[in-house]
Amino acid sequence: MKAIKEIYPILEQPQNIVITFHQKPDADAMGSGLALYHFLVKGGHKVDVISPTNWSDWLNWMPGVDKVIDFELNKNLSQQLIAQANCLFCLDFNIISRTKNFAPVLEDISATKVLIDHHQQPDVDYFEYGESNTAKSSTCEMVYDFIIESGKGEWIDQTIAGCLYAGVMTDTGSFRFPGATASTHRMIADLKEKGIEHTRIHENIYDNFLENRVRFLGYVLLKRMEVFYEYNTAIIWISKRDLFKFEIKTGDTDGLVNYPLTIKGIKFAALVIDRDEERKWSFRSKGDFDVNTFARKYFNGGGHFNAAGGRSNDSLEETIEHFKKVLKENAAQLL
Ligand code: 5GP
Ligand code: MN
């Protein structure tokens, strides 16, 4: 994989570009995708953004989201756009299986593949150019760096700044995780000078739930959370019936996994959701318990040191039993 800065000369000429990110995009994926979209459009390129799946309603305030194509609803169009593209930007993921059903379309394509991502263990063979930096707070911060280093920082307007802010804010847990560095804060100061209304962005993302989602949170914490003080761990499990009963939609379960970590002494939190196609795990930790390794080793997943995800094809009961078993094996690291 060549350094990302080597792509700048190619971008001096108008290109036909597709931007994509991981399935079920979060604010970092969607924010970085749309920020890059607005930047590249200013550069005279033809740009399309394709999301591998649908996304949460609370991302719909982002400028440009109405132009994002949902691959699952527009397979033919997406295939056409990919076939015509000569450049593919892959944001906030680093292995194409993270694009779910879009992945087969992305294999063996002629477009130049460019990676901008902050997850661990990238599949560097797939990408021709790129930057993979796990020390970065977010892909949005990396897209900001990409724009600044191109010498076109003055192109960052309120629209681009707002998209970038959303991803940095959410991926750093509102600037509390260790990934929020001095350079992250310098970037935020710059975005503030470009006119972002940070209070409105926080409200758009965090104060935009329907009543059922807030009641669902209460229900889950009361009925679906189990705490294992001997391992400083807590797990939340959610059944298909729960999802149905509370009319849970994409994005409504985001953030739930963080709640057990607010219990004094808890270092490791796990959330498992009984989705139609698989049991989806989310893992979060505080301090030196490496959930990326845990997710890779036991749940066919990955991510970051303190935030990762995985999956299982077992039943909900079976995968919870498996979790409890492997938790014991990791007891030494959790004390
Ligand atoms: P979440 O729990 O929010 O779904 O994911 C936490 C982090 O782990 C995110 O950065 C996400 O990209 C990553 N992640 C989630 N699921 C998977 C997975 O199945 N495989 C890999 N490699 N990363 C994942
Ligand atoms: Mn991210």
Describe the structure concisely for a colleague.
The protein is of the alpha/beta class and 335 residues long.
Succession of helices and strands: EEHEEHEHEEHHHHHEEHEEHEEHH
Instruction: Give the beta-strand count.
Output: 13
Q: Describe the strand arrangement of the main beta sheet, using strand numbers.
A: 1-7-6-5-2-3-4
Q: Which regions contain 5 or more consecutive residues with pLDDT less than 50?
A: none
The total number of structural domains is 2
CATH topology of the largest domain: inorganic pyrophosphatase (n-terminal core)
Please bin the fraction of helical residues: 25-40%
Shape verdict:
globular
User: What is the alpha-carbon Rg in Å?
Assistant: 20 Å
Provide the CATH architecture of the largest domain: Alpha-Beta Complex
Largest sheet: 7 strands, parallel
- Helix count equals 12
Within CATH, the superfamily of the largest domain carries the name inorganic pyrophosphatase (n-terminal core)
Strand content: 15-25%
Main features:
globular; binds guanosine-5'-monophosphate; 7-stranded parallel beta sheet; inorganic pyrophosphatase (n-terminal core); binds manganese (II) ion; alpha/beta; 2 domains; 335 residues; single chain; Diaminopimelate Epimerase, Chain A, domain 1
Lay out the secondary structure.
Layout: E1 2-3, E2 16-21, H1 27-42, E3 46-51, E4 69-70, H2 75-84, E5 87-91, H3 103-106, E6 112-117, E7 129-132, H4 139-149, H5 158-171, H6 182-193, H7 198-206, H8 211-223, E8 225-228, E9 233-238, H9 240-245, E10 268-274, E11 279-285, H10 291-299, E12 302-303, E13 307-312, H11 316-329, H12 331-334
Parallel strand pairs: 1-7, 2-3, 2-5, 3-4, 5-6, 6-7, 9-10
Antiparallel strand pairs: 8-9, 10-11, 11-13, 12-13
Guanosine-5'-monophosphate binds next to strand 12 and strand 13.
